[in-house]
Design brief:
two-stranded antiparallel ribbon
Length: about 425
């Protein structure tokens, strides 16, 4: 029962992740349809992240005060409307508005899933459930790879997005009928300590309390690099890079970027579980940070054949799943009554990575563009992509360095008056 309740919330996160990376296999169609270049395309994709990031703090507070059921239902309903708006957009402005609406609405999914996990699963399974959340999301990313490209080629991107809107609306109904905030509502014991008696603090007081913990800042900043690099490569620029530099067709290029997402998905639950078993968060997080840094450096700068590049994407993506360690770590770094607000704040990091890096890489590509066009879409050479992807590497390096400052939690929940960090 716990997995079924959690799973409906996970389906909204799956849809959100699908929407997050869908532009990657539609770059040529979107560039031609809206007559835009790399910077504008990056901005169109990033409109999802703009609203998603802004929504994280209110989402965390609302998860603490209103509950996951209402948030997930409303999120799915609004996401359906935003998807329909994007599909029917007559120009770039309306398309941006649709992406903005989708990002704001699905922003409730991940934090709500973490909130449900805290009530429906034991503490020993929380890190694993957090990792499974990433796995569900990446399943959506894989669907937005080769399958989506095939559908776009067969029916057009607008028709596919309209069907996506209908399915999302159906999910809103299912969530309202099935999901409950706590097992106690169905007569079962809750895994959340004092779940019936704990009260969320006032909104501003709760946010200020969360921001007084050093770890929360660090665990928000670090995923900007690790997650941002994955979302920028697999979520937008990897497919055209593999087509224009390595000569792959769109389907093969989408399959390669999906490999990165699958490895990322596998890394999340495994790394979260391994850190739980080890009883420490920081050593494994730092080790995987170094692996990700080296992996991206080789992918960007080394003259690799295609098979070697694909092989490197696997450990790089797997190591980038270390952000899941950070979610469990952040939860342990604050009192449990603040867990929703803390999760919402920390979830800004991964999305800020996509928000900042996708348009930044597009801007750099436009600066290095040699004027080549094909079917109305811009073509970039290897030098341009190397310059653009260097921004990703710089973000991963900064993330690795900032993690050195984090304080170990030893997988123990912080009490209201203990282990407070200034």
């Amino acid at each position: 029962m716990a997995w079924s309740v959690w799973g409906l919330g996970a389906l909204l996160y799956l849809i959100g992740f699908y929407q997050r990376v869908a532009p990657a296999v539609m770059t040529d169609r979107l560039m031609a349809d809206f007559a835009i270049g790399g910077a504008a395309l990056g901005n169109l994709s990033a409109f999802y992240f703009y609203s998603y990031v802004v929504m994280q703090i209110p989402t965390g507070v609302l998860a603490d005060r209103w509950g996951a059921r209402r948030l997930l239902t409303a999120g799915a309903a609004v996401a359906a409307l935003g998807t329909a708006l994007f599909a029917l957009a007559p120009d770039l402005g309306w398309a941006n508005a649709g992406r903005l609406l989708v990002g704001a609405s699905v922003a409730v999914a991940f934090v709500s899933m973490l909130k449900l996990a805290g009530h429906w699963f034991s503490p020993q399974h929380y890190a694993f459930a957090s990792g499974m959340a990433l796995l569900m999301g990446v399943v959506g990313g894989v669907v937005a790879g080769v399958p989506l490209r095939l559908l776009v080629e067969g029916f057009g991107w607008r028709s596919v997005m309209l069907v996506s809107a209908v399915l999302t609306g159906m999910l809103a109904v299912a969530i309202w009928l099935r999901v409950r905030d706590d097992p106690a509502e169905l007569g079962y014991a809750s895994h959340a300590p004092h779940s019936g008696a704990a009260h969320a603090p006032p909104v501003l007081a709760g946010l200020l309390a969360v921001l007084s913990y050093r770890n929360i800042w660090i665990l928000t900043l670090a995923p900007i690099g690790f997650s941002g690099a994955v979302l920028t490569f697999a979520g937008l620029w990897g497919v055209p890079f593999l087509q224009q530099v390595h000569g792959l067709d769109p389907r093969s290029a989408a399959l390669v970027t999906s490999t990165l997402l699958v490895a990322w998905a596998a890394g999340g639950p495994l790394l979260g579980s391994w850190s739980q078993k080890a009883g420490r968060r920081k050593p494994l997080y730092l080790l995987t940070a170094v692996v990700a840094l080296l992996g991206w450096a080789l992918i960007i700068y080394a003259p690799l054949p295609l098979w070697a590049l694909v092989a490197l994407l696997v450990p790089t993506g797997f190591a980038s799943g270390n952000i899941i360690i950070g979610f469990a770590w952040a939860k342990e770094s604050v009192p449990l009554r603040l867990s929703g607000t803390a999760s919402g704040f920390c979830n800004m990091g991964p999305l800020m990575g996509g928000m900042l890096l996708q348009p930044a890489v597009g801007w750099m590509l436009d600066r290095r563009w040699n004027g080549a066009l094909e079917g109305g879409a811009r073509l970039y050479d290897a030098t341009a992509y190397r310059a653009g992807f260097s921004l990703m590497l710089g973000a991963v390096l900064a993330a690795t360095l900032v993690m050195l400052l984090a304080k170990e939690s030893y997988c123990r929940q912080t009490g209201i008056e203990t282990e407070k960090e200034g």
